[in-house]
Prior knowledge:
The complex is a heterodimer of chains A (446) and B (233). Chain A is an alpha+beta fold and 446 residues long. Chain A has helices spanning 12-23, 25-62, 76-83, 126-135, 151-154, 180-185, 237-242, 263-274, 286-327, 329-337, 342-377, 408-434, 438-443, and strands at residues 65-74, 88-93, 95-99, 139-143, 159-163, 175-179, 193-197, 203-213, 232-235, 250-257, 280-284.
Amino acid sequence: MHAAPWFGPRMNFVKRAGLSCAARKSRTAGLLGIFVVIGTLLLGGFHLRATAAAQEAHTGRTIGVDVTLLADGLTPETAGAIAASAVVTRHTLELPVRADPVDVTPRTVDAPTPEPPAPDGEDAPADDAREDTREDGPLVVTGVPETDLLLPFSHGSARITAGRALNTKDTDRRVAMVEQRLAAENGLGVGDTLRLRGADGSPVPLEVVGIFRDPAPEPAGWAPPHELPGNTLYVPVSTAVSLGADEKGTDRAVFRIGSPEDAALLHEETERLLGAGTFETRVNDKAFRDQVRPVQRVGSIAGLVVNGVVVAGALVLGLVVMAQMRERRHEAGVLLAMGEKRWKLLAQHLVEVAAVALPAVLLATSAGSVAIGVAGDALPGPPPDAVGPGPGAGPESGADPGPGGVGAATVARAAGVGLGISLVSTVVPGLGLLRLHPRSLLTDTD
Amino acid sequence: MTSASAPLLQLSGISHTYTGGRRRTTVLRGIDHTFERGTFTAVVGPSGSGKTTLLGLASGLERPTAGAVRFRGRDIGELGLGRYRSKHAATIFQQYNLLTYLTAAQNVTCAMEITGSRPETGNRRARALHLLETLGLDRETATRNVLQLSGGQQQRVAIARALACDVDLLFADEPTGNLDEATAEGITEALRRLAHDQGTCVVAVTHSPRLAAAADRVLTLRRGRLTEQAAAR
């Protein structure tokens, strides 16, 4: 018994497709070229769109829109509840307190002549004296959930010179960020501990986790210590409370949201928690508009490019394949006259197109890297950590290696679109052609 | 179901009209005829008399505008024109109609694959090469692209392709038209043997008196009507 040849009856259209492609080299090469061009444009467009989306998400997270909430008696708990909203990425508030040092020497400038001591018997009781000291303590301590969102730090006027910023992980920790001049005066470095007097009079030890530089100069003349920019510390909110800060001592909080469109949602959430008419919000989206909108425009243009290429590619491929099918009417007539099934004829054409499209995708992937490099340069400089997966970076960013490379998802998408175009452009004219009787196909030259 | 007692091929009241714009041209008018297995029939007539159209209708390449073509008693439209062409009827075209991206041998094996024809040896390529060789095309010629062959060689490839398919009906449109006398004689003899030795019903449209003379029956088509004349021998 003879083994069935590899091109058995059920596979003859595949074999014919292969022989046809091999025999019609110039036609195959032309079709390959068209596919490569369309595939490259598709890959470039998809990649640009994915990169723009990732960068938009990243920029949105980084820049964001700051919504300032003004409400009487705002507490850290209330602000935290509002910050739990899905649209809020970060939040902060400032809970100020004046604190007394225990083992730290506050900075002073040209101390004024001391006033005469109070007459005997007029000294205040010890407890009262401590209370006065606390209220009028020389150190300005600010309780914050995190320091990055504070205006001086987010706009870059203040900067960290050693260690790190305070963040939400420090919520229940006894840590502090100390102004550079105060740290220098007391020989404090990151990892050292300083002690302030707590609300109950006991010392509160604080580990220095960061040292920052406030650009404000010391006043030229005399000023009380608490007015010196050097006498500033930042601590977590809970620490500020333990130092005597009034939990209802603030009337404003700042919430960072991803886009201006989210402001309405935040307003609804705040209204639900605080009640209508009890608060006011101010939206500052200037930075967002300045930095995110250009990226959005690039993304929109990339989307238009992709759609344009899909339409133009479909038209070009459709016309090319249609023209090829028309010039192969006679061949179709011959095969039908021999009794070939219509679906096999169509399948032969599809196999021929796919046999060209798949290598074209590989070529386009190489060519696309060049186009992507050029397209990537068109985007406003992405931050280094914008490349690669990240929350909110969009579904494509996880599969894309970022500018300079082509992700598998992008290649698969471009290949899918390319094959879809070729499928439609083969099947639609093919169905019209194959409705005809073989004799019509064999005798009609048009 | 086809019937064993029914004629192999029956043309029943066949008329055919071509429509081009407002112009309608009736080519065949009320053709009635039956063809039996093992017979070799020649159809003659002047050019434009409808011979090729008759062949096209009988071979299932198109459907008549009136009447019926029945294979073993069953309308070929019901049987399925594609199935009829692949399983029961093969055609040798006047214009050869070869697949130009294939070699001579591949054209023959391609037809065998489509029709499901499998030689006793099981080797289609060997069968194709053998058939081509009996028609005067050696192996070297058989493995060349058909566009590199002469008209006469292409005609023999077309004939081999039809002979390779194990069918009940073989239709041939001017099968010896481009062949030299000796080769034409060989083709004529091959068709006659196919009918008489293998039981195939062969119907050939021709202008060749020699081919007509070799046929069992000669039908004349004139102004769309078919008449039978006595065979030359």
